[in-house]
Design brief:
heterodimer; A: mainly alpha; two-stranded parallel sheet; 4 helices; globular; B: alpha/beta; Rossmann fold; 3-stranded antiparallel β-sheet
Chain lengths: ~120, ~220
């Protein structure tokens, strides 16, 4: 297929999106990630019946928490596609990367950089 | 088990904002099962607080620890050697754990991270409902195993009141009439004779009316 996708995101593989926990999402942001998206199977097609529904709920909860701490819940999103939809995967990755670029760096990353500069200067 | 609910993050932020070194202390018992204050919730709250204060440009130390229980001396002792590293503790245990920790560590501010709700059962995924009010004098033998004290809004002990309609309580259409449940169960048990027996006046001195309660067991004392 040789589709072009952005190079500035990292893929973390999970056995099922149902494996994802809120803390995984939060830790990514705590470590300085600018955005995060979860790609699960089509709704209704989960091999474990409800893994992708659980993931969606957790993504929504994480988004609410990120809103509450001022990071921005829009930086995290859940997508669904089937394993045969490579072009859609590429489209989603471009869409998400563009959206995050528009939003700019995560306030946590900027805060971490400021703290590091302060520490270096001291 | 004891059912608790997470406090809103905003409320916890307000509670801890004046402290620089905060320990989030979880409990492995009831609050873990009802997903309000176990290890996972400790991790999430600590992460959220770290991000919030980082975003505010404040450098705070936020530690995480989860004890087997917070209502027993031996487990609470486990944090004695690290307690001086912190200015405040946010306990995600039920009200019992928060108070017991506060009694043990007199000079350490103890802040609750959950609201303790009731003694209940896990009826369904994400649904916990009250089953017991710890009234101290159990009447379940006579009421078909369904508690009129915790499940009837009026705590009536001799049949339903006039607010019972089609098996539901007048306080809400979603609330079962406890006495309807009791009668259904007594019928199923073929023990409707029990329903005819007038309950004597209940001794409420074993409930909260008698003040804080204590159980002393000489047989298990050392």
């Amino acid at each position: 297929m040789r589709l072009k996708i952005p190079t500035n995101f990292r893929i973390i593989r999970l056995p099922c999106t149902g494996k994802i926990d809120i803390i995984h999402i939060l830790r990514a942001f705590e470590k300085g990630a600018d955005g995060l998206y979860v790609v699960g199977c089509m709704e209704g097609d989960c091999h474990f019946n409800e893994g992708n529904f659980r993931a969606r709920k957790r993504v929504e909860q994480a988004a609410r928490m990120l809103d509450q701490v001022g990071v921005g819940g829009e930086r995290v999103k859940m997508y669904n596609l089937s394993s045969g939809e490579g072009p859609l995967f590429a489209q989603y990755s471009i869409e998400m990367v563009n959206k995050i670029k528009q939003m700019g760096p995560s306030p946590i990353r900027l805060a971490k950089e400021r703290m590091k500069q302060k520490a270096d200067a001291a | 088990m004891i059912i608790a609910e997470k406090k809103p993050i905003e409320e916890i932020i307000q509670e801890v904002k004046d402290f620089d070194r905060i320990l989030i202390l979880g409990c492995n018992e009831c609050v873990t099962v009802c997903e309000a204050g176990g290890k996972k919730e400790v991790e999430v709250l600590a992460s959220v607080l770290r991000m919030y204060f980082m975003n505010q440009g404040q450098e705070k130390t936020i530690g995480e620890r989860t004890l087997e229980r917070q209502c027993d001396h031996e487990y609470l002792e486990e944090i004695r050697n690290i307690i001086d590293d912190y200015d405040a503790i946010v306990s995600l245990a039920c009200g019992v754990g928060v108070q017991f920790a506060a009694e043990k560590y007199l000079t350490m501010p103890l802040l609750p991270g959950v609201n303790t709700i009731c003694l209940g059962a896990n009826e369904d995924r994400g649904l916990w409902t009250e089953r017991c009010q710890a009234c101290g004098t159990c009447v379940l033998a006579r009421t078909g195993g369904i508690c009129p004290v915790s499940r009837c809004a009026k705590r009536v002990l001799n049949g339903p009141c006039g607010g019972s309609t089609n098996g539901k309580c007048e306080i809400s259409k979603d609330t079962d009439c406890a006495w309807q449940l009791i009668i259904d169960r007594l019928k199923a048990l073929d023990k409707m004779d029990d329903y005819e027996k007038v309950a004597p006046v209940k001794d409420w001195s074993t409930d909260r009316a008698g003040g804080p309660r204590t159980v002393t067991r000489e047989d298990v004392k050392i």
